[in-house]
Amino acid sequence: MQREPFVVRDCALVAMATGRKAQTLKELRDQLREVEEVSIYHHFWGRLLQPQFDEPEYNNDFAAWVFHHLHHQELAERLSVVNPTEFPSMDAVRDELVEIVERELDESEWVAYLRADRAFHFVKSQIVVFDTGIVLDTPESLRDAVHKMSSGNIFYHFIDARRRTPMGKDDFSAWLEGYGERYRGLIESLGSIDPYFSSLEEIRNILEEIFSRHLGEES
Fold first, then answer.
1. Secondary structure of residue 123 in the 3-state scheme
2. Is residue 152 within 8 Å of residue 131, measured between CB atoms?
3. This prediction's pTM
């Protein structure tokens, strides 16, 4: 049976202003309700492809802004634990963020008077995909190639793929399923990875270990 090869692609995110901003918690809540879903996605996942000069304290831009510019640590921590992989869509993530902010506004009257020292600017991004010219014919070749993959390769095939594939799977798993049950254990190991709290380099290292463990035994 002839199977389609795995075509390795790279990507970059082009950030664009939405024209929306917030200076207070009420404004943040109101803008969260109306902003495009792609903006919510950018503020959770876009950071992975942005250069990091130090270890970020919070895992999404909303939590970081609340901490650094609204100076509300407890709320920042509550926003930071929102893991988008645990929700069926970014709209569901949006609902969770709005609920957290509304609860804080209801329970703490003083936060309504907080004004950030710098506004939160809502950004959206468009993904630009590049053909690398790399084509892999077997799972074993995928094992050998993963440690050479760039951050853009990992983001495109393991993060952004979840928006593109019908079942919300990464591209590696979707491709391996074409081999039937032979690689079921590998697919399950890939499915157990939570990419949200890791850098792309850390995700690549995890993938390399998993591919080596499963495919090394069969090669």
1. strand
2. no
3. 0.89
User: Are the C-beta atoms of residues 132 and 153 closer than 8 Å to each other?
Assistant: yes
Give the chain's radius of gyration (CA, Å): 20
* Residues facing 17 on adjacent strands: 123
140's tokens: 């074993």
**Mean pLDDT throughout 48-76?**
85
Residue 94 to residue 40: CA distance in whole angstroms: 7
Q: What is the pLDDT of residue 206?
A: 96
Domain map (residue ranges) of the chain:
14-124, 138-218
Q: What is the rounded CA–CA span in Å between residue 155 and residue 59?
A: 16
Looking at the DSSP assignment, which residues form a beta bridge with residue 135?
Answer: 7
Which amino acid does the sequence have at 58?
Y
**Under 8 Å between Cβ of 156 and 9:** yes
| Chain-centre distance for alpha carbon 78 | 18
Average pLDDT over the chain reads 91
Picking from 183, 189, 177, 170, the residue whose alpha carbon sits closest to that of residue 140 is 183
Q: Is the dihedral of CA 164, 167, 173, 178 positive or negative?
A: negative
Determine the Cα–Cα distance for residues 37 and 35; give it in Å rounded to an integer. 7
Written as six digits, the tokens of 183 are: 């690689």
